[in-house]
Structure formats: C-alpha cells, structure tokens
Amino acid sequence: MSDSRVPGWVWITTPALALAFVGFVIYLSTLPSSDELAAVKGDARSVLQQGIDRAKATVKEKASASLPEEAKPAYDFYRLLEEQKVEAPKVDAYVSTPKDAEVNYQYVLQAGAFRNASDADQMRANLLLLGLNAYQEGSTVNDSTWHRVYVGPFTNRSKLNKAMDILVSNNISPLTLKRPLPQADATKK
User: Fold this and answer.
1) Using CA atoms, how far apart are residues 30 and 23, in angstroms rounded to an integer?
2) Most buried by CB count within 10 Å: which residue of 9, 56, 110, 123?
3) pLDDT digits over 106-141, tens only?
4) What is the pTM of this model?
C-alpha cells in the first residue's frame, strides 16, 4: 500500500467547485452584453411612456365628455375680491396726552388672591421686603371671602412697569388694574 493517499473530502470538494465554476460561466454567457441591456431598458422606457400618454389621453377624453363646455371650476375668490368694496370708518388721528395734563386714574397691580388671610399676609410681607408698596383687601365673592394683595397705586407708567418687572422676576404674574382717582386726590393737583 502506498502512503500518498488523498483524503475523502478533497474528492468531494474538487468536483463540486468545478461544477459551480462551469455553472457560473454558463450563467454569464446567458446575460446580454452591455449594449443589449441598454437597448432593452430603452425599449421598456418607451413602452412605459406610450402607456402613460395613452392613459392621459383617455382621462382627458372622459373628462371632456362628462363635463359640458360651459362648466368651469367654482373658484370665484379672485373675482369676488376685486368686486368687493370695504368701507373703512373715519378715525381721528392719534393725539398724545400732554405731559402737564391732569391724570384722572391710577394703576394698581394685583399680585395674588387667597382664601386664607395668612397666605395673603405672607405674600404682602414678601412684597414689602422687595421694596414694593403692598397692601391687602378682603372681598366677598359667592359667600366666600378672598384676600387680594395689591401693589401700588401708580400714576406713572414707568414706575408701574418697574414694579411689574420686579414681580415677574420673582415668578409673580401681576394683573394690571386701572382705577379712577378718588375725587379728593384729583382736586389737590
């Protein structure tokens, strides 16, 4: 016996690889060349375009046959807009209030409203610590007492805005109220 024996897996793998190679070569021979492939793609595109054109023509024929010629879209917006007239009311020009004019009102900022008087007093104390002129008033609404905390009064808008900035910077959203001046204060000026 000879020692040059070939293993069994070589006898199985070698013919399998040879058959796979022959199959791949046959597959490559069935593919069209690049010129033929481009021609097939071009033919497919032209057939597709012809089908699209025929479908569009069919849709146009059906649409024109089903609608009478005098029927038009119902978009009259532009025509109606041109025909419409809007009468603007006569408005007097804005005239600024003179600096020396007498002020007949004052502004007050409502910083909060509480059902509990101690909560309102605590808010008032915090506002006083911020340097604001704060006070509270009680009122009855629907048989329930509310304690409202106010800052002010202000007759000057710049002081009002400064107080509002302080409140907003402390996460308090104030409500601005415009009140007429009491008659005694208005006559002193």
Assistant:
1) 11
2) 123
3) 888 888 888 888 888 888 888 888 888 888 888 888
4) 0.44
